Automatic annotation (TrEMBL):
The lineage of its organism: Bacteria, Bacillati, Actinomycetota, Actinomycetes, Streptosporangiales. It comes from the Bacteria. Residues 82-339 form the AB hydrolase-1 domain. SUPFAM superfamilies: alpha/beta-Hydrolases. This is Pimeloyl-ACP methyl ester carboxylesterase. It comes from Nonomuraea rubra. GO terms for molecular function: catalytic activity.
Length: 350
C-alpha cells in the first residue's frame, strides 16, 4: 500500500470520525437546547412541595417477611379510609395531589409497594401481581379499621384486581368503592406503544430478553443513572405525559426522580408479572361497589381500549376518558382525578 493511499484512507477515516463526533455533539446540543426551552417556560408548579407531605409513618412486615413502608394521613376518626396504591417504578409520593386534596376530610392510607419507594426489596420470585394483592389485603387488615375505598394507578390498579381475585369477600362490606386509574386487566404484551405494527412486534420480541439482561447488570447500570439527565427528562415527559406542552417541568422532574430511584433489577423483576397480568375474569367482584375508571386518551402504556375493556366488564362503573392526557394522569390532570375521586367517595354509603 502506498503512502499516498494510506494517508487518503486515514484522512477518510478521520473525516468519518469527525463527522460522527460532530453529529453526536449536534444531537447533544439539540437535546440540551430542547430541554432548556422547556425549562424556560412559565412553571406554575415550581413552588409545589413535592415529596414534603408527611403522615404517621408505619411499617408492615408481610406474611412472607418483607417490610413495607406505610403512611397514614388525615383525621383518624373519619368514617371512610382511602387506600392509595401506586404504579410501577413509582412510590406513594406519586399521589401528592390526591393526598393533599383528600387529607382534610378522609383518612388516607398510602403505601410503597414491595421493592418500591421506602419498602424492602423483594426477591425476583416474590415480585408478582398476586403477591401485591396479598400485600394490599394485609395493609387493609392492619391499618384500615372501618370501611374503605381503594384507588389504584397502573400497577396499583392491577393490585386491586389481584385482591378481588384472591379475596372477593372483602368487596361490598369492607371495601365500599374502587377507582382504577390508567390501568389494565391484561394483554399488556400486545401494546403497540404508539409504534407501527411491525416495529411493535419486534420490540415485544426482544424486550423480555433485554429487560432480563438489564436486570442482571442492574447494579452497574444504576451507577450510570445520574441525577437530572436531560435524556431521562425527555423520556419521562414523552412516555409519562405524552410530551404535553402544558405539563410543568417541575412535575416531570419529580416523576423522573421516582423512576430513577427504582433499581433496574426491580424494573426487570416486575416486568414479566406486568406482561402476564390477566384479571379480566375477576373484575365482576368489583361490580357491586361504586367504581370509577379514568384514563388519558394519549396513554401509550395502558391505552384507553384497556380501560374500555374494564368498563365493559363492569356495567355500573363510570368511565372517564380525559383528552390530551397520558399515563401519569394523576399528576398531569390532578384536578380532574381529584374531582372524580370526590364524586366517587360521595356515592359511598357509610
Amino acid at each position: 500500500m502506498t503512502t499516498t493511499t494510506t494517508r487518503r484512507r486515514v484522512g477518510i477515516a478521520g473525516a468519518l470520525v469527525g463527522a460522527a463526533s460532530a453529529g453526536v455533539a449536534a444531537a447533544a446540543l439539540a437535546k440540551r437546547y430542547a430541554v432548556g426551552r422547556i425549562r424556560l417556560r412559565p412553571d406554575h408548579e415550581a413552588s409545589e412541595p413535592f415529596g414534603e407531605l408527611r403522615g404517621r409513618e408505619r411499617t408492615l412486615v408481610t406474611s412472607d417477611g418483607y417490610a413495607l413502608h406505610v403512611e397514614i394521613d388525615g383525621p383518624e376518626d373519619a368514617p371512610l379510609t382511602v387506600v392509595l396504591c401506586h404504579g410501577y417504578c413509582l412510590s406513594l409520593e406519586s399521589w401528592h395531589y390526591q393526598r393533599k386534596d383528600l387529607r382534610e376530610n378522609y383518612r388516607i392510607v398510602l403505601w410503597d409497594q414491595r421493592s418500591h419507594g421506602r419498602s424492602q426489596r423483594a426477591g425476583a420470585d416474590d415480585c408478582t401481581i398476586d403477591r401485591l394483592g396479598d400485600d394490599l389485603a394485609e395493609v387493609i387488615e392492619k391499618f384500615v379499621p372501618g370501611p374503605c375505598a381503594l384507588v389504584g394507578h397502573s400497577m396499583g390498579g392491577m393490585t386491586i384486581m389481584a385482591l378481588a381475585d384472591r379475596r372477593p369477600e372483602l368487596f361490598g362490606d369492607k371495601i365500599r368503592a374502587a377507582a382504577l386509574i390508567a390501568t389494565s386487566a391484561g394483554k399488556l404484551a400486545e401494546l403497540t406503544l404508539g409504534l407501527p405494527a411491525m416495529l411493535s412486534k419486534v420490540v415485544h420480541k426482544v424486550a423480555p430478553g433485554t429487560v432480563s439482561l438489564l436486570g442482571k447488570r442492574g447494579t452497574w447500570i444504576d451507577r450510570t443513572r445520574h441525577a437530572g439527565s436531560d435524556i431521562a427528562f425527555l423520556i419521562t415527559r414523552l412516555i409519562g405525559f405524552g410530551d404535553s406542552k402544558n405539563v410543568s417541568p417541575t412535575v416531570v422532574d419529580f416523576a423522573e426522580s421516582m423512576i430513577r430511584a427504582t433499581p433496574t433489577e426491580v424494573v426487570a423483576n416486575f416486568y414479566p408479572a406486568l406482561m402476564n397480568h390477566d384479571k379480566l375474569a375477576a373484575l365482576h367482584v368489583l361490580d357491586p361497589v361504586p367504581t370509577a375508571i379514568v384514563v388519558g386518551d394519549r396513554d401509550w402504556l395502558t391505552p384507553p381500549d384497556h380501560s374500555k375493556a374494564i368498563a365493559a366488564a363492569l356495567p355500573k362503573a363510570q368511565l372517564t376518558e380525559v383528552p390530551e392526557t397520558s399515563h401519569l394522569i394523576q399528576m398531569e390532570r390532578p384536578g380532574i382525578v381529584n374531582d372524580t375521586l370526590r364524586d366517587l367517595l360521595k356515592r359511598v354509603e357509610i
